[in-house]
Specification:
By secondary structure, the protein is an alpha+beta fold. It is built from 8 helices and 10 strands.
Length: 263
């Protein structure tokens, strides 16, 4: 099989390493699919890279457009590429899968899942607790709680928009501390000695808000995973309430289930 050297982003029209041998018993569309899949797996075609158009690739390889289209549909079925209406076909970002069996921060979660975590601080400041926040954090309605809004990224691509709220006694955390420590949990541990002990998390699906569409770079009809989590300290007191919206094409949640023990 031909080697797959890294693709020059400036040369988006053709895949010069892609070859189809019509003497082989393997159908042409499978040869195209397998070589592109191998290139994606090796990183020669990075996430977000645009594939050539069906028409251009068919002309370059001496194939029918239907053959190339079938190869692209196979790649789409394998969740390696995604069509974007009016734009073309692009290499998909790797979907991250979190197994919910522990309480860890985003940075540690990234390390566990094997991607490069990033965070962009959008807002930090005091807000009055509404009824929902007051119930979650066991404070009074109107008490000032610290809200931290961050855009989370995975390998530099937007992954989630997160709103974290801290109970009034922890409202002194600053943007400088977040930047210095790179983790909210680390900042809380060093400043207040607070560490997470357990959490209760719910997961739902909904359409994105306008702000989520812009920041997560998704369309109005692309659903998001809506996560809500209340985190408790070792004294079983809630100290954090988080609302997050995750891109469903880049993130999914897994649950490890066991059969009940037989008596």
């Amino acid at each position: 099989m031909p080697t797959t050297p890294p693709v020059d982003p400036a040369d988006r029209a053709l895949l010069p390493w892609l070859r189809v041998d019509k003497r082989l018993p393997t159908p042409a569309y499978l040869q195209v699919r397998d070589q592109i899949a191998t290139a994606i797996g090796r990183g020669a075609l990075p996430a977000g890279h645009a594939l050539p158009s069906e028409r251009d690739l068919a002309a370059d390889l001496g194939l029918s457009r239907m053959t190339v289209r079938r190869a692209f549909r196979e790649l789409e079925h394998d969740e390696l590429v995604e069509p974007r209406h009016g734009s073309g076909t692009y290499v998909r970002s790797r979907r991250l899968e979190q197994t919910i069996d522990r309480v860890i921060g985003f940075t540690d979660e990234a390390r566990h899942l094997g991607f490069r975590a990033g965070s962009r601080l959008l807002e930090i400041g005091l807000v009055p607790a509404d009824a929902e926040l007051a119930e979650a954090l066991r404070c009074r309605v109107g008490d000032e709680v610290l809200r931290v809004v961050r855009l989370r990224t995975a390998d530099d691509a937007p992954l989630s928009l997160q709103y974290a709220h801290l109970r009034p006694s922890l409202a002194g955390v600053t943007a400088e501390e977040l930047e210095r420590h790179g983790s909210l949990y680390r900042a809380l541990e060093l400043r207040f000695g607070v560490v997470p002990q357990r959490a209760r998390q719910t997961i739902g699906a909904r359409l994105p808000t306008r702000r989520e569409r812009v920041l997560l770079e998704i369309g109005p009809h692309d659903p998001v995973l809506a996560l809500e989590r209340t985190t408790f300290d070792p004294e079983d007191l809630p100290f954090e309430y988080v609302r997050s919206a995750y891109r469903t094409d880049r993130y999914r949640v897994a649950l490890d289930l066991r059969a009940p023990e037989r008596g």
